[in-house]
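Minutes, project check-in
Item: structure for the 301-residue chain
Input as provided by the requester:
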Amino acid sequence: MSSAAPARPPTSYLMIGRPELALIGITILWGGTFLIVHHAMRESGPFFFVGLRFGTATLVTLPLAWPLLRSITGQELGAGLMIGLGIFAGYSLQSWGLQTISSSTSAFITAAYVPLVPILQWIILRRRPRIASWVGVALAFAGLMLIAAPQEGMAMGTGEVLTLISTLAIALEIIFISLWAGQVNVARVTLVQLAVTALLAFACMVPAGEAVPPLSWTVILSACGLGLITALIQFVMNWAQRSVSPTRATLIYAGEPVWAGIIGRIAGDRLPPMALAGGLLIVAAMIVSEMRFGNRDRAPT
């Protein structure tokens, strides 16, 4: 599928432009959200929290996108729906998992989505993964096993399993964003995907048997504050990935669990040595899976 975005000349991965700097900035913000959600999950169910968070993000985005909605296309509605489905599944499962695991553990497990991106590109976009991608998958698997080691019998608990499943949805979100990047209006698609996420989250409260929690300023301020951050993150991702490839973007996102781990440690979160080693292996998997060897791999994928 062709892209309407102007092509960027092939560059080294050491060269960083404004889109890359923007992605680095939101990665730092993203890393700080895990601890906030972890504390909020003590007083709220995951679907209500995700609904309130993305409902706030939708309201923040609405004034920017409203003047442009008359020109919305079917392609933009479809893109917003698919990206929204990925966001809903990823964030809901991740929030659910944060009820029982620490913010640092969640961040490191979530980082396993990076080696999944090349595999999904193979399935969806027919781009064959490189050997480095398979090495990354193997390292990520080893890291996940070490994170599970503190659990009895080397078995992952419910929180770890839910978070691991969420990585598939997050990887799909990145693929979907890149699939339509440059062909759609960023503001309109961002509004649709945020609204879809909020509506799906609130709708799932009933079948999940989740009640509206008692009034809590911790939940309200956390969800609304994260809503503002989420709106910014989604706008930047949609804008920056018009010119930054999926693999280059995911390499930048490799810093997210590191920032989450630093913030979690400052807050008193101490991972067992075995789990910390597993987290470092996952970060290594993220980096190795995006490495380029030889001239033919220098251009962005």
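Outcome recorded: DSSP finds 13 helices and no strands in the chain.
No further action items on this chain.
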